[in-house]
Amino acid sequence: MFKIALKSLLNRRLTVALSILTVALSVLLLVGVERLRTEARNSFANTVSGTDLIVGARTGSVQLLLYSVFRVGNATNNIAWESYQKLAADPRVAWTIPVSLGDSHHGFAVLGTTTDYFRHLRFGDRLDSQSLAFRHGRAFAKNHDAVLGSNVAQMRGYRLGERITLAHGSGDGALTEHADQPFTIVGILAPTGTPVDDTVHVSLDGLTAIHEGWESGSASLLSSSGVLAADENRAVPPPTSITAFYVGLRSPTAIFSFQRAVNQFKGEALMAIMPGVALSELWQLMSIAEQALLVVSGFVMVIGLLGMLTALLTGLNERRREMAILRSVGARAWQIFLLVMGETLLLVTLGIALGIALLYSLIIAFKPILREYYSFNLGVNSPTSTEWLLLAATLLAGVLIAAIPAWRAYRMSLSDGLSQHQ
Questions:
Q1: Burial 85-95, CB ≥16 within 10 A → b, else e
Q2: If pLDDT is split at 50, 70 and 90, which confidence band does 218 have?
Q3: Following DSSP, what letter does each residue of 137-178 receive, concatenated?
Q4: Membrane-crossing residues (predicted)?
Q5: SS3 state at 400
Q6: Where are the beta strands (DSSP E) in 190-342?
Q7: Is the predicted pLDDT of residue 376 greater than 50, yes or no?
Q8: Angle 233-239-242 from CA coordinates, rounded to 5°
Q9: Cα–Cα distance for residue pair 300/302, rounded to 1 Å
Q10: Tell me: the pLDDT tens digits for 262-286?
């Protein structure tokens, strides 16, 4: 009986292949959306590992997180350098990383900081975090040294020793360049899969130096005359302000007390956020869009299964002779039921397996591209518990779908049997 069923499947190989492909593509979309959602969350969470607090001018916590860590948006205000120094001198603070944003280079963000950035900033899972590593060169030592993220170097084809010019303002729309004070590339960082890869890093002194004479927002006569660029290593005063700073505390128990001290700082209106809490708020904002995308994927899966059901029901009439042969060799009606149901479940199972295989093939194929060009780490990990649940739900839906043609085949085999007896 099974040999006849197998030959029947081979005889309908085009319909069977299309049914399996339909289920496979539906599974690919359903599980793929869940995988992208999970990896996007992990990628965001891994960007600032080991940083206890981020301090900036008072604004929304999500906005502070986005512009200070992910270079998205702009700061509403800056922090006075004196305020930063006072808070950095707090005995509860182990280290700080000041960051100053606002300039760009061919659309890539320029970040002014100190060498503590390369010493203390970590990324990756909190239990397995990594520090920044240099693929080539070293950290900046002079005012006009620059360290590039891996994507900047690769996409622009830069090498050590080349000179680059920064533009005043952020984004591709920044038109005014600090052409009189170019920077020399002295280091290129290894890929991290974080916004660090898309950033040009310079020293705070270098950033201050190129903005001398730009207090009005545009180049003054003093700046445009080239006098300030004559000595690139001249001593420059400390910056008047920075965009934000990252904080590492000596003890995790001091997080709330230091956060309260920042929020109640009397010098100016500041706020301190915990990156994990701010990310949770961000995911809450995004949850509606995520759920909508998952629902759409679920509907695609249902449509795929209904398409397979239609093909099976359409083919049942054509298989009436096949069932009559099975009955003639001794198969009972309930065995016909189990045979059709098993056949449908086999198609669904093969579709799920093919969908998972396609998903991992695409991940392996596009993983380097996503990491190099979009700083997005897509892991080749085993399915998560949620993905297993989605696959189980698909299989359960397949069982329900399989029962319909199986029941119809059962009724047809009974009817045909009675007709033969009459």
A1: eebeebebbeb
A2: low
A3: E----STTEEEE-HHHHHHHT--TT-EE--EESSSTT--EE-
A4: 14-33, 292-316, 336-366, 386-407
A5: helix
A6: 199-203, 241-242, 244-249, 270-273
A7: yes
A8: 130
A9: 5
A10: 999 888 899 999 988 888 888 888 8
Query: What letters, b where the CB count within 10 A reaches 16 and e where it falls short, cover 334-343?
Result: eebbebbbeb
pTM over 0.85: no
User: CA 243 to CA 66: how far, in whole Å?
Assistant: 12
For the stretch 135-189, pLDDT in tens is 999 998 888 899 999 889 988 899 999 999 888 776 655 567 777 788 999 999 9
Interval 223-268: pLDDT, tens? 555 555 555 666 778 888 999 999 999 998 999 999 999 999 888 8
Kindly give the residue spans of alpha helices, DSSP state H, lying in 319-384: 320-328, 333-374
Tokens 């010493």, residue? 119
107 conformational bin, left if phi > 0, alpha if psi -120 to 50, beta if neither: left
Residue corresponding to tokens 């991992």: 360
What are residue 129's phi and psi, to 5 degrees?
A: -75, 155
Alpha carbon distance 384, 34 (integer Å) = 9
| Environment class of 396 (CB within 10 Å of its CB; exposed 0-12, middle 13-18, buried 19+) | exposed
Gap between the Cα atoms of 229 and 163, Å rounded: 14
Give the Cα separation of 136 and 147 in Å (integer).
Answer: 10
CA distance 160 to 149: 12
